[in-house]
Design goal:
Layout (H helix, E strand, L loop, with lengths): L8 E5 L7 H12 L6 E5 L5 H13 L4 H20 L7 H18 L9 H7 L1 H17 L4 E3 L7 E2 L10 H17 L3 E5 L2 E4 L4 E3 L5 H11 L4 E6 L20 E3 H9 L10 H6 L4 E5 L8 E4 L11 E15 L5 H14 L6 E5 L2 E7 L5 H8 L2 E15 L9 H8 L7 E3 L6 E7 L3 H21 L1
Parallel strand pairs: 1-2, 1-8, 2-5, 3-5, 4-6, 8-10, 9-11
Antiparallel strand pairs: 6-7, 10-11, 12-14, 12-15, 13-14, 15-17, 16-17
Helix pairs in contact: 2-3, 3-4, 4-6, 7-8, 11-12
Length: 463
């Protein structure tokens, strides 16, 4: 078992951070500067590899001839990059291991049955190869740079349920194995190099934790090993007050609570995988979102610390591809009975509403258009009249101070006078307020609220 008193940090790097030779050498320098802190290194697949593997697997199942060419492109890219970085790569220990894993990948692709659809279990058999290849290359480069790296297959430690493509780790089993294998390597003086995103079932079938699941891996490993901190290295300055692609004036948030970060992730902020926060929050381990392009500049700290000087709204996030469902009961039962039936239908179909608004005549719900399914539609059709509309987005304001600000919703609605707001929901959390609007109005409303609630408040506090 790992020594819980030994200082340890987890460092996770995404695929863009290790996309080419110069990126990899830059990441190696970042790691070298922190090697005294006993880092555990988590890497994603190299840039776009996961999607390329998925495409090759789909081509193979559909009998499209391009699958062999696509697989060759993946192999050629990784081999050429490794040869650039490592002298005598093909004859090296890691070069031989690379060849072995490529052979496994070729066999796995060729053994896929030809069907109309790639089954989730078969998809999860293929996608982990991206992380396996990237970590083999990174382990070799680290060793060449003088870091005592040790490659580990995290599928032997992160044991999940059988919900393929969206698997959830089994905490008790995984924690023990992470301590034995990853923690044991740290105790022995190694720097473990592990894969994000992947795990395996108790039967040994490969699983994945959902796209961008490497962040989740990092906090799961960090919480199991009682790390002092978890560093998520991205190509952004940190969590921002809004999407900088839309808002040029968006600013980095220096400090944010676990609860605020979880809200932002759930409602559309793409900096963190939604499941990332809970393992760290449960063990009170701070998460740092650091900028791989500017590693000496502080990023965003996510912790239980509260920022007394923070504005009312920390950040505003949008989520697109939403649909509204308006429900009215066939008869006039108790409103509580009707609402219970609606939410039971959602639970049975495993659909989580992003916003809802109770009305005298029924209820309006906002769900992701991708979550609509026949089971949900059938369940709702038995409960009442249903009207569905699409082309919507949600806009969510998040901040700890919202819970104590007097009549926050009324204040924001006054700011939005003149804009068409289709639904307002403040029932899901005391630290957020969610609107449903037409997707075509998102940018204008986002810019207006960001200016009024974040930029102007910052100016007022500074004067």
């Amino acid at each position: 078992m790992a020594d819980i008193d030994m200082t340890k940090i987890v460092m996770k790097f995404g695929g863009v951070s290790i996309a080419d030779e110069s990126c990899i050498r830059h990441v190696i320098r970042i790691i070298q500067q922190r090697v005294e802190n006993n880092p555990i290194l988590v890497f994603s697949a190299m840039s776009k590899t996961t999607r390329r593997l998925l495409q090759v697997a789909e081509w193979q199942t559909q009998g499209i001839g391009e699958s062999s060419e696509g697989l060759l492109e993946i192999e050629t890219f990784h081999r050429a990059l490794a040869q650039q970085l490592i002298p005598d790569w093909d004859e090296s220990e890691y070069g031989i291991r690379f060849d072995s894993i490529m052979s496994e990948l070729h066999h796995a692709i060729q053994s896929l049955p030809q069907t109309d659809r790639l089954e989730p279990k078969l998809q999860d058999r293929i996608l982990p190869f991206g992380e396996l290849l990237s970590t083999i290359i990174m382990s070799a480069v680290l060793q060449q740079a003088g870091v005592r790296a040790k490659w580990l297959d995290i599928r032997n430690a992160i044991i999940t349920n059988e919900d393929f493509t969206m698997a959830m780790p089994i905490p008790d089993i995984s924690s023990v194995k992470i301590n034995e294998q990853v923690g044991g390597a740290v105790e022995a003086g190694y720097v473990p190099v592990i894969q994000g995103f992947i795990g395996s079932t108790e039967k040994g079938d490969s699983t994945t934790l959902g796209f961008e699941g490497s962040d989740f891996t990092a906090t799961l490993v960090g919480s199991s090993l009682k790390a002092s901190e978890i560093q998520i290295w991205k190509d952004v300055p940190g969590l921002m007050t809004a999407d900088p692609r839309v808002i040029e004036e968006a600013r980095k948030v220096d400090l944010i609570s676990f609860e605020e970060a979880a809200e932002l992730s759930f409602f559309g902020a793409k900096v963190l995988h939604p499941n990332t926060i809970e393992p760290a929050r449960a063990h009170q381990i701070p998460i740092y979102i650091n900028n791989v392009r500017d590693p000496d500049k502080p990023g965003t700290k996510i912790s239980s610390d509260l920022d007394s000087a923070a504005p009312i709204v920390k950040s505003i996030t949008a989520k697109h591809g939403m649909q509204a469902i308006q429900m009215k009961p066939f008869e006039s039962p108790s409103n509580y009975v009707f609402l219970d039936k609606v939410f039971d239908a959602l639970d049975e179909a495993d659909v989580m509403p992003y916003a809802f608004q109770s009305e005298p005549s029924g209820i309006s719900l906002v769900i992701s258009a991708g979550d609509e399914n026949s089971e949900l539609n059938n369940n709702l059709d038995f409960i009442g009249e249903k009207h569905v509309s699409t082309g919507h987005s949600t806009l969510t304001l998040v901040g700890e101070k919202i819970r104590t600000f007097p009549d926050f919703k009324s204040m924001v609605l006054k700011l939005l006078k003149g804009f068409h707001i289709k639904l307002v929901s403040d029932m899901s959390s005391p630290i957020s307020l969610t609107f449903m609007i037409n997707t075509t109005d998102v940018d204008a409303i986002l810019k207006h609220l960001h200016e009024k609630l974040i930029i102007q408040q910052a100016i007022e506090e500074a004067t």
